[in-house]
Fold each of these.
Amino acid sequence: MKYRLMAVVLVLAGAASALPSWWGTRGLNRVVDARTVGAGRYNVGLFANLGLSGDERTAVIGNEEMEITNTEYDGTGYIVAGFGLGRAAELGLRVNYIVNQMKRDGDSAEISGDWEGDDGFSEATASLKWNINPNANSVWFGIMPWASFALYDGGNSSYVVNGDGWDGIWLNDEGIFELRRPMISAGSFSYGANLLTTFNLDPAALHVNLGYHKFNQSFEYTDLRYNAAHEVTATQDVDIEVEDAVLYTGAGIEYPVGTTTLFAEVEWRHFMDRNYDNGDGEDYDDIIQVAPGVRFNNDGLAIDVTGSFALTDFSPEWSDLGHGIFQSGGTPTEQERADRSPFPQGYAPKMGLGIGLSYTGTFRNPPAEIGGRVYDSETGEALYGTVTASRDDVEPVNTTQEGSYAMEASRGEITLTGSAEGYLPSSETVDLASGGTYTVDFPLTRIETSGVVTGTVTDIATGQPLDAIVSSGSVQAQTGSDGSYSIELPSGNRNLTATASAYGPESAMVNVPAGGSAEHDFQLGLVVDFDKVYFDLDSSVLRRDAKEALDEIAAFLLANPGVSVTITGNTCDLGEEDYNQALAERRAEAVRSYLVSKGVSESRLQTVSYGESRPDAPNTDEEHRALNRRAEFVILGR
């Protein structure tokens, strides 16, 4: 009963953590989890985030130049939902509601009014996540393509306008593009994909997202130039499309403490098509935010409280769509205006505060909950192992330090298998009912991991013991003086090979019993191929190359005292046959004498003269005749 309760708690804890991100798919807030919400499960959420930024500006109001600090407020609401399409797939949906407002400085507000802004539903986003789980319950990899469509249903336009007075830069009904987030939507159609990785650090989890995002914004308005008396002195119609390619990096770490989860996230967006630099080395083509938070879980229901801080600086000069160039008397090109266009999705506020409410539940037929232990059948000791299922849609899980595991599966028959290193696996089949709770324990039997193989290595012709090595992989054993060996190997079918100098190797497959012994004898055949020794025409004097070859042959014969050889002398066809017969004998004797001088016993060396009767090549030219002036060796064995 204790472990049944533990399994249920683990399952519920897993369900609570599988809550939606701002994308609708499982995750923290900004960063997406590579894992899915799970088959037969769904989640819904409502998130709100308020950004606050104070920006100092220089304004000319009533022919008077003054320094003002306008305060920008941007609010974002996310309505999200996620659906588990199986063990490895998840669908996420999101609708955004955007609020953009600016509160003027007190001095300027007396002349131009307090507030300006706009709000409305901005975009609908769909995302689809696939993942793989190569290391059981340790690491997940995934990919999440997404697409967004504009839904703007706000006030006067798709960007913030000056609603009630002049602030020194713009007049009534003109766009306020120098704000951090003047746009209600990021364009009519946006798309991208994120690569996802999640590491199980038990109990913490680390998530890393890498993405490529593409945006296309449209701007159509009339830019106006004013003099000191606030009279229009020039106009320019603007109608441009601005494309932005963005490299995205996000990382988040979460650490559960009971029913509370502490987490922190960081985001970095690099705008590849922008090159913002005031000449002081400070760039404005990156946005970096950090966001700590806490999540309170209760049986699938969660409340998130988060904060956010921008680590990069915003410059209104690089977000005014080129109005500053036009106001100063220049004529900005389309490229200059595009370079100074507002960031899609807006620039990060200096600080922000967010709150979220989400719930994870199951569909009409909820999955069954399975839990239990994997342990040593003799000692009861908990084992760190893995529990796998016969269905592809049920993810393998690793046990905890207490040997416990928990998993979910839809109704129907399923076969579970518990395994641990050094133990025989165990399986059990269960017929699951929807919403049921099952305890399946796996008492595993330890595997005896090794056995011993013994035997001898002998000469196949004589039966004499050999000085040999018996090996299997990196494990090897040397034979004794009687040719016997003993080698300890892991149990199972093992390939053994015996090798000895001058003998051909022999291999055999031997079944090594766990905790027992097996016997196998090796018989090796002698394999030696001595180099031939060559002589000059009508000579039995050993050449330098002949002596080098004979030195190696002498070394082998000294190392193998049981081997005897016959030395054969040969000639080409030049000269009388009787003369060649005697010349071949002198050549064989010259070789024998040299080997004896190196310490080889005379009793092991015989000589035979074949004269010109056994040519090695046709005697048709000098090159072939040279191959026939030789001495060869015939192995007689031990």
Amino acid sequence: MALKRITKHPILEIRENIEVTFAWNGKKLTGYQGEMISSALFANGIHIFGHHPKDNSPQGMFCANGQCSQCLVIADGLPVKSCMTPLAEAMKIKSVEGLPKLPEDDVEPRIQSVATRDVEVLVIGAGPAGLAAAVELGKLGVDTLIIDDKDRPGGKLVLQTHKFFGSVEDSYAGTRGFEIATILEEEIDKLESVDIWLNTTAVAVFSDKIVGAVKGVKSSRYKQIKPQKLLIATGAREKMLSFPGNTLPGVYGAGAFQTLVNRDLVKSSEKVLIVGGGNVGLIAGYHAIQAGIEVVALIEALPQVGGYKVHADKLKRLGVPILTHHTVVAASGKDKVELVTVARLDADWNVVPKTHKTFEVDTVLIAVGLAEVNEFYIKAKKWGMDAFCAGDAREIAEASAAMFTGKIEGLKIAQSLGLPVGEIPSEWDQKATILKSKPGPAVSRKHPVREQGVFPIFHCYQEVPCNPCTSVCPVGAIRTEQDEITGLPYITDLDACTGCGSCVAVCPGLSMILVDYRDDPEHPWVTLPYEIGRERVEVGQKIPITDVDGAILGYYPVEKISVRRKYPGTLLIQAKVDKNVAKAAMGIWVQEKQIEPSTIYEKELPPDVAIVCRCERITAGEIKAAIRNGVRDMNQLKALTRVGMGACGSKTCRPMIWRIFKEEGIELGTVTDRVDRPLFVEVPIGMLAGAHGGGHLEDK
């Protein structure tokens, strides 16, 4: 069986890896040393990691972020989260069938004291907010420790292949997310007072103001950290939807998909449907096409997508249908997703009869929003710690905003330590607010009537915080309205443009082109940005050129392909077109044949059969029945149904339970919230006693 690896990518470098062999349920397979077990299994076409003890239903990956336990496997005799455990040579891995059995102890248990590390500032989370804060603290010489549960810093930046919005000066606009992660990592490496522990999971915040963490993978050790100041920059977790079939392998979060495709270069799917039209869903669709995966459709329940219009326009130009006023009705398949059914919603959010469409897919990506990972912050404040919060853990926004909030909180922490940092610049707060702002309404724009010379056409129709084109124009001819970062760009002098194409290459939204009438006014050149597979476009090949909404304007041969050294991932495709379509030209259609639904859904399953609690397999119907019987306490609901008692600690089901209370007409203020567990992440009890790996004593 051929491994499902991405061997060509328009943006990412295909790395050299050390191949290792491992056993899966006794069968010999190959993978890469150090990659996560889940990625190695996906690369071998394995999507089922076990079967649930309650109903024997197949279980696969869901979050790929260590937040749940859906990907549990038995590795060398121990139950582990496959998305957080690296593969090693000769590893013996088994699926979890029923409840995993604990291994026999082979060491006489002895309680051992655990040393406590004192530090001025502890930062939990090495994503954009945590790294940006640590840079500010490190510049001031503050003793700072960053801990993160991944094997590399950067957080979600590592998963982002697209160019960032914002400004060049403040948020690396025009630079790709994974490149920003490298920039921040290099800044951290230069700071002597900043230490970083990777593969380190924070598990609890205790009443004595100590943070417990498990450090390392193979030789895990429990560590205690006592900070003077604590910064929570733990990011966000993805929300889930309740619909029949939502626990089938192949239904998982868009972030998990980006982890597989962009971080680990695993071609996890062949055909996907995306649920959710925010930036996460729109960008995931773009990443899928870059990886050679078909996107059959993106659906959004609202009348319009909630993300940036330029992201939606990119998908339309590539041939992806975007269906607004639509919801997912059900996913079905024997052992994994094979079909997904969607339907139209009316103005009251009810499914419109006879509007069901069924697509053949192997993956359904859920991108319906994010929830703050803020439990560490809440607990720290409860225990009276001097705690701060930044990034998505504080407020869901773009990564550019997270970096700014991290910088601000870093200086606030320095102030609280009594360092002479002065006043935090007021414009920082203003810029952070702008970067967190929602996109404005789409507007119409008139293009220049001129048909001579060379100049850019701006297909930006929505105010978003973005202005890198103003920074790269060598003649300074591009500005934004009112010189605001959210203002729409325009050219101040058509005669000033030299046709260098830098603005086209830097544009994060790929929403800018050049038209050049100098050679032939009747058949001007157009320069289009392109970031999909290089092999799909060759000089001399006729390509379908589209307008901003994806309508094909005509087929024209490629005359030239070039690239700017600073933006190597963005090809500049040049073609001669008819003058009547030149200013409307915007992109290149990739999915030549629009993928149509294959069947009509005939039997609608009742939504109450949908699973809400994935760990305990508790349905929406069971929860509704308890609520209708008068339950108004999450703890009582847990005692009656076991909802929220699973390994994930209700991280996934909790938001859905609140939604069910609301849908049942219950005033949320009358509902008693759950009592959080003392530990936020599972850890062997032996680990807390100073045992090495939870079962073996620490050597030193």
Amino acid sequence: MNSKPLINVHTHIFTSEDVPRYIAKGVFPFYWLLDLRKVIPIAKIYFKCKPFFHRLNRHRRNALSAIRSRWFLHILYTAGLVWLSLNALYFLVDYAKWDFSAYLPDWAVFDLAERMLKKYLLLEQASAVLRTAMIATAYAMFKPLRQLMWKFLVMIFQPLRSIPRDQIAHFWHRYKNIIRFATYKNQAGVFDRLHKMYPPLSKMVVLPMDMEFMGAGAPQRSYLQQLEDLHGLAIGKTRRDVLVPFLFVDPRRIRHDRKIKTSNPFFDWEVQNGKVCLKPCLVKKYLEDDNGGRGVFKGIKIYPALGYYPFDEDLLPLWLYCQDHEIPITTHCIMGSIYSRARLHRKQLHHPYLTKNGKSLRLRHITRYEAQRNFTQPLNYALLLEPRHLHQWLSRCRTEIADLFYSEGGQRRDLSGLKINLAHYGGPSEWAKYLEQDRLEPSQELIEMPNIGVSFRYKQVDAAKNNPTLFYNERLADLWQSGVDWFSLINSLMMQYPNVYADISYTLHDPVIKPLLSRNMQHPRLRRRILFGTDYYVVRQHDTEKGLFLRLLEGLDKDDIELLIRQNPTEFLSI
């Protein structure tokens, strides 16, 4: 029997109370209609009445079966459904005061509608209540009508045209998951449901979320309350050995506490004997025990898509502390539906570090959804891990931050040994992009130099790539502008730096990853850096937790599976 437990390095158990009320802001034009504080009470009533709805649906299916078995009833039913659908569409058009003349000829619409009104097929004088009931009934009963209604909405409401359908679908699935788990009163219920799906003694890394600074309104309870609740679960007798909590850190919370000069700051530090030490603060409370050893929380979680860069100067002292104490860091590295809803500032149109031809690099992604790509780009971690890039960035930081990276002997320190997990491995779309980019030179470097991959120091045309004295300041900017896929970049980071990992959470559900995952598991270095994770409960929109685990087992040999689910996570967590 294997002595190491199975470890899932990426799970979530936060509840709807920890999510901003206007999470739909920036996705739906009328986001206030999806206010969580109003929707969740209705959802809870629905879940309580769900058995009744199941019985009602069973009776509906039986009735439909009886109707379809008699041809004359089937004709009447179909005619009634068509009549109901036509009225629903008419009511929608009438509400919107939409002018069809720009899209369709008069004879195709106006004459037909007028004739139908004269024949009393359209209920022109129907009340608002009756109209709403008929629209809702038609929407629920007729699937093609739902698709047609969406097309009408897109044509009527201009803001919907600028939002990709896949973005809305992705957000809607995430929103439904939040609602689905709203019936759990606390994180304990969500965790217990998760853990029962795995063998006994399996460990779950739980990643909290601090979404108070994302510009979507305040959650029902504060992040500090979420942390205290998670801390209580982690020290309880029943979950102490199986729940591994991480601490979510947002640099804006650090700056907020420094600005108001609170007596109990989230993060505070000092230098002792040339090393970063924690002063009394919440980070110290959760990361250290009374004797200065590892505390209850075993790692750090960051989520740059919420509107900051991983090399933010207020994070650098914490990264030095984590490197010295081998504390792992998990960071979000995928395009998703949780991102900053705050208005973009002009300074965010340029990268704070990268330059091209002596000028700051202008970023192409200007919408709030697209801007998350700038914050989550894997190249931002090359800046952290590559000493020459980091030291150039330090020259722009506060003096007290830059001085941390000089030892007493005058030697420069760096973060090349930082233990970091690029969660989600870039996402399935970036894996597919790697397969498509067969002519982009940086993507070919992963094949040409299988033990190094994409260089973060040299020009592509440099023939002496193995010369460690060469350095090209604008290399990261060139890679950024070339649009090289994240799969190549993340693999290169894992090969070039000793403690870079990537988990396959969320990405695991997509079948496109299986051939590439199998190939990576044959690489002598990459196979030791890939971690098992599922992104529970977020990925529930695509597959069940059991289904994801079985999908992973399929096609991999026993040694590869042991590395993914036991050995690699154990080394990453340093437990």
